[in-house]
């Protein structure tokens, strides 16, 4: 059991952890423990009495502390530390941040999934600075809002899905109002011929022969001020077909990582969880083979808990637990006594917010060795806890996962208060890229 009281009161006030920016590789990733400590000095002047100088120094120090404490939404930390007791909760920094832009427009009508969360996270973490995020749902609404556009405003464009825009419409909008176009890449949408297909995988993308990006998409990509890739994996696929200076690798806004091992006591049943969407793309057919074939191991039952509305009634030992929220998934895994997780895919992920939660849950997991999931877990360097499969040997590797769980049953465990602290917004990692895109950094006392 972790010492929760210590985790809730970290001793890292005024520590500012920054992201390093690799100009040659165009990537923003956490620097290695880069931090700046705010220090206060006092001194005496030969021309003034010591007591007066000390009094003034104390007053100045108190003024700085009051000003810093009042900066509620200061620069969030990026951290490579591995335990929440080392992560600053509610950390503030002696820097005043002001919005660089007053309004941000976005075209994105996806009703769920990672692309929706991406926009929601931008609004949640930067809307507090007074920046307005304005959705453009269709052409009529855009024309009605035309008077609001100003040169240099930011336009985020994700998909045409569920809108009446064309790529040409978006291009004309950017050119007419001289907008700063930002295109976040979530999948291979911009490499597909069909504008209504957001997740179609083409084997030709990896073929040696030249692949021609559709001309309307290519024109828009060339206009972009920033094309943002959340992983090196998806960046490299696009890089094989286009080379633009606007291409940059930036991890998504996401929870910081906590690395530990938690395997509840096993009793007579292995409980395996699935916190990804039950779709073909995310390996549902592979998991259903396990559902049908694996019902016991080492004399114990094997049960599967899917945190979705998947109907697994035709499989004994498969239970649909309904959807989850950002804040309750960890406690629900504890309540169900989940011992391990599955992250099986047919198509490669480009980031996976669910994987962040899987790592933070402390559970061992079985994953398909592809895409950003493999890229991220390779950095964890723990092949015993994170077991890889190429999907052809999934049954054998699932046995390895169960054996690991059997060997570590009853290890670790934290209480609900800890999980609440882990989901605190102050532990969200905000990449430097977005800080620079949205905010200007000012010294204390300067005007906006």
Topology:
Blueprint: H1 4-7, E1 15-22, E2 27-37, H2 50-70, E3 96-99, E4 103-107, H3 114-126, E5 132-135, H4 139-144, E6 154-157, H5 167-177, E7 180-184, H6 215-223, E8 226-229, H7 232-239, E9 247-249, E10 254-255, E11 269-274, H8 284-293, E12 296-297, E13 300-306, E14 318-320, H9 329-335, E15 340-343, H10 353-360, E16 365-368, H11 371-380, E17 386-389, H12 394-408, H13 416-422, E18 428-429, H14 432-438, E19 439-442
Parallel strand pairs: 4-5, 4-6, 6-7, 7-8, 8-9, 11-13, 11-15, 13-14, 15-16, 16-17
Antiparallel strand pairs: 1-2, 3-19, 10-18, 12-13
Helix pairs in contact: 5-6
Task: Please give a structural write-up.
There is one protein chain. By secondary structure, the chain is of the alpha/beta class. It folds into 3 domains: 83 residues, no CATH class; 156 residues, Rossmann fold (3-Layer(aba) Sandwich); 143 residues, Glycogen Phosphorylase B (Rossmann fold, 3-Layer(aba) Sandwich). Helices cover 30% and strands 19% of the residues. The N terminus and C terminus are likely disordered.
